[in-house]
Amino acid sequence: MNRRALARLLGERIAQAGDERFGIMLVRVQRLQEFRLVHGYDASDAVGEAAHARLREVLRPVDELVQVAENEFIALLPALLNNGHAMLAASRVARAFETPLLFEHHSVMTPVAVGVSIHPEHGVDATTLLRRAEIALRDAKRMSERCALYSPGSERMMVPYEWLHEALRTNRLEAHFEPILDLRRNDVCGYESLARWNNVEIGPIRPDVFIRLAEDTGLIAELTRWSLNATFRHAAHIRAKDTRLRFSVNISPRVFGQRDLVQQITSALSVWDMPADAVTLEVTESALMEDPDASISMLHTLREAGLGIAIDDFGAGYSSLAYLKQFPATELKIDRSFVGDMRHDVRSARVVRAIIDLGHQLDLQVVAEGVEDAETLEVLRALGCDRAQGFHIGRSTPASFLLDRIATV
User: Where would I find the GGDEF domain in this sequence (predicted)?
Assistant: First the structure.
C-alpha cells in the first residue's frame, strides 16, 4: 500500500473512531538491506513475507496490518483501554522478533524497531499521527526495548544536512569547555570539550540535534575531526599554564569503523603537541553496547595509543558486567539522572554508592555528572567519588574565553 492509500485508510478509521482511542503502530524491520545484498531480492521478499506472517501472529484479530514498504508495516490498533495497552502490544511485537525468521533454507535475525502514536491524544489527522509514530520509532532505535510511545515535546528541530556540512566546512562550530573538579584536591583537574553551534539564521542549535544529524548523514567523521582539532588547539595553550590539566572529548562509536581513526587522533595530538595521556575519549555506555565486540577491539587500540577511555552516562544503559570487565576503561562517569536524584531518593543514592565502589574495585576513576548543589557535592566527596562536574562546579565556557581568562592570570 502506498502512502496516499494509507493516509486515506487512516482517515476513514479516524472518522469512524470519533473520540475512541486507537493506536498507530509503525514497525520497521532492521538489517533487510544487508540480507538482500548477500542473498538477493527473492530471498529479501521472502523475509518481508515471513515478517508479515509473524506480525499477524502476535496482533489481535481486530487489528489491521498494512505493509507500506519492503521493511515497514503499519498496524492499526482499535479499542485500546489505555496507552499501556498499546505499549503491551508494541513490546510483544519487539519480543517476537528476538527469535529468527525461518523460511525455505534460511534462518535470519531481523530485529525491529516499533513506534506508537495514539488517537486522539497525539493527533486527530493521519499526517500528524503517522509523523509522531515515526518520531517514536526513531527513539525506539536507541532503546534496549526497541519500542517507544510518542512523547509530546520529543520532536527535534529539523536542520538541513547542507547547514551542518557548511558549518563544518567554514569552522562555524565552537568548542566549549566544562570544568571537572578533583574532589580530593578540591581543584579543577581538567575540562570536558563540548561542541556548540550558533546558527546565524535561527540561533543556537541543540547538540543532540546536530550530533544525531551528523550520525545519520555520515557527517559524524567530519564532526569528529573538527572536535578533536578544536579541542587540542585550545587545550595545548591552556596546558601551557598548567600541565596537570586533562581534556575529555566525546566520541561516537559510529566512527569506530574508520580504518584511520587511531592515526587521525594521534596525528591531531602531534599537530597540537598534546600528549596522549592528557586526553580522555568519552563513549556512552548504551552506544558501546550496540556492538560490544567491535567496541572492545577499537577501545583497546585507542588505549594502547596512550589515551584514557571514559564510559559516559554509566548506569543509564544496559551493559552487563561481563562486557564491562572487558572494556579497557580508565573512568566511569555516573549518569546525571542518579546524581540529581540522590539527595531525595534512597535508591539513587545507593546506585551512586555502588557505582563508585564498583569503579574503584576495577581500578577506575569515578566522575559524577550533573552536580547542581553543594550538598550533593559533599555527599559525593564522602562516598569517595574522585571527580565531579555540573552547574554547581561551573558551566561550560567558550574555549576561547577560557583561554583569554587564563592568559591574564
Answer: 20-152
